[in-house]
Amino acid sequence: MKKLSLKTRMALAVSALFVIFVAVLIHFIMSYLEREFKRAISDQQFTLASSLAKSLDDEISLIQSALIASAARLPHQALTDPGQARRFLDSKPSLLSMFDNGIFLISKEGRPIAESPYLPNRKGEDISFREFYKKAIASKEPYISKPYSSAHASGARAIIITAPVFDRTGNVLAILGGSFDLTGNNFLAHLGRINIGKTGYVFLVSNDRTIIMHPDQEDIIKSNAVPSGLNKLLDKALTGIAASDETIASNGVPVLASYKRLQSTDWFLAIHYPLDEAYAPFHKVRRYVTLGILAGTAVVLLMVWVVMRRFMQPLTAIARHMEEFPNKPSEQRLLEIAPGDEIGTLASAFNKMIVEMDEQEERHQKLQAQLLQVQKMESVGRLAGGVAHDFNNMLTAIIGFGGLLQMDMDEDSRSRGYLDQMVSAAEKAANLSQGLLAFSRKQMRSSKPADLSELIIKMKKILSRVISEDIEFKAVLKGENLIAMADSGQIEQVLLNLVTNARDAMPRGGQLIIETGLAEMDDEYVKAHGYGEPGKYALISVTDTGTGMDEETKQKIFEPFFTTKEVGKGTGLGLSIVYGIVKQHGGYINVYSEKESGTTFRIYLPLIQSEACTGESREVPVLKGGTETILVIEDDVQVRQFSRTALESFGYRVIEAVDGEDALRRFEEHKDHVQLLLLDVIMPKKNGMEVYTEIKKTRPDIQVIFSSGYTGDVLTGKGIIEEGLSFISKPVSPHELLSKVREILDGKVNHKKGGGL
């Protein structure tokens, strides 16, 4: 067998060493990345499960509060008069909208008094043996039943929520309750329609292993659907330990599972995400890396072979020397090579190649880290925008119906305080929604020239209330005008978040300083700091003398969901929202901090040559109604019901449409009477702008108000902002809706100038 030449053997040896080195290095890198990727996916999924569980708890608490409030207002005469009781139930559209399977009133003896919708065959039936009735009577508290088969429809699966009706001495007189169809169109059924990726899903399971909600409706209310020992992670969660890890689902599919117990009941919210899909991105990267190693090996082999061919003579001399002197002493076997010969050149080239490879690897890692950060921010931003839209629709119904109740309720009513708290909480949720949009950088901004020093002066009193008494607060404001094009509300949110973080960093007191000034970035500054555009900037500095941060923490503070606070004391979104707002304003933010030496945040906003706009206080106008006909086009049932209720309460005639095509049909039927369109922007079949364009062909003089809970980029894409059409953003209160309707009908808004925005 012919021996391989030295050239070939050298090429093979160098290539083999390269492959072994790269393979080992890639193995450790990929193993580390795999662990971090799985941990990140698991953490994100558990965060999503916790968020969904909290939303579900909030929804259940809201429904229980509505039941309790209605039970408190139930006339005692209705307990003996089924007709009056039925009229009372029928007069509760908010409850009927919550309980899609009906509401009912049961006497303390366990017999139905009234139901809505009315079921005549239930009259006189004895239901005192039912579990929900016995529990409600015994506990004298609101109760959530186990799933059961509903009498309203054959085979329907439902749950009941009840609230006791008391007399003045605290005795139970009756039970007021409502029923949800678990396969219907309510907040519980919607859980079963949430998609996690392509094949992941969300479901609810009770403490006794009964399926409450599942995408596969055949599994709903199955008892012991997941026996003990089949899913060990579920067994662990049922002991009270919230968990997120890999496990085997009941159908034998390996999944990434997250379990979170609800606070309002003994249910567990679960997310199952098949591992094949959850880890697919990483497996794809690993395949690409493997192919890259193989391709790199082929390239290196070819390069080494070419180099060996060029340096054949010195290598041959070395080989002959080794062949002729196999038995020479070690000191005679060495071949002295001058540093300037071919081997020396090869060594220099090899060293240079190693340096270049290290530099390329470093650049690659930096680019990869930047890409992962951009992808993560974009993904969370899209999630935030989508959540904000759905959230705004729900908040419209909550704030809307709550506002209507406030209008109808006496100021000194005992329940008015409860209602005010509910509406206030919903408004705070609306502010959170706006924060999510700011974080995703898709919020519609209302930017005006603003004097930042004047803004801080107005905020000083509010900020003083945020910090504790053992913190000394100073504001150092420069004399020159610092005018920036900004949304004052968003800048106030930035300051509030930064001051709150500073307060938390000084548990034993300290000093907080907010300072404004003028900063100028030139080319050298941009090159040295790695960010910015040359020009003049308004500078806001927020400095505290708190605990400070180490370098690792500073690198992560603007990442979403990163927090150094204890569990339950921070969402990890505060500084991410700050970062998003500053970037949305075309500015920059950086942080200087050392452990135990305090922290300084510096915000740079571009200066403009303009006078600051000062807000003028306006009196809240008295609401006026009318008799005009308004076509309300809205695909969300609850939002549509709120709009109709609010408008009809002030005398307007309302015609409803559920989608774009229905809107055109309804308009054609009443085109001579409709004076105003209340149009949702995004709807099935035809969107709001398409509907408006079609109707305008028939009625060029028609008035219109658009509404949406979507983000600003969606509205821009539909042409609403560009054409200056009137618009109200969800969530909307009854006062905002009625005021805008009256303004449009009275001709007080100039569409050409965008007065409705």
Folded structure, characterized:
The protein has 757 residues and is an alpha+beta fold. Among the domains are: 108 residues, Beta-Lactamase; 159 residues, Heat Shock Protein 90 (2-Layer Sandwich); 125 residues, 3-Layer(aba) Sandwich (Rossmann fold). It is 47% helix and 19% strand. The protein contains 22 helices and 24 strands. Strands 1, 2, 3, 4, 5 and 6 form a 6-stranded antiparallel sheet that branches. Strands 7, 8, 9, 10, 11 and 12 form a 6-stranded antiparallel sheet that branches. The chain is globular.
C-alpha end-to-end distance: 87 Å
CATH class of the domain at 448-606: Alpha Beta
At the fourth CATH level, what is the homologous superfamily of the domain at 448-606?
Histidine kinase-like ATPase, C-terminal domain
The largest β sheet comes out as: 6 strands, antiparallel
The CATH level-2 architecture of the domain at 448-606 is identified as 2-Layer Sandwich
Please tally the β strands and state the result: 24
Number of helices: 22
The percentage of residues in β strands lies in: 15-25%
Q: Report low-confidence residues grouped into runs of 5 or more.
A: 346-351, 615-619, 750-757
Broad structural category = alpha+beta
Report the C-alpha radius of gyration, rounded: 34 Å
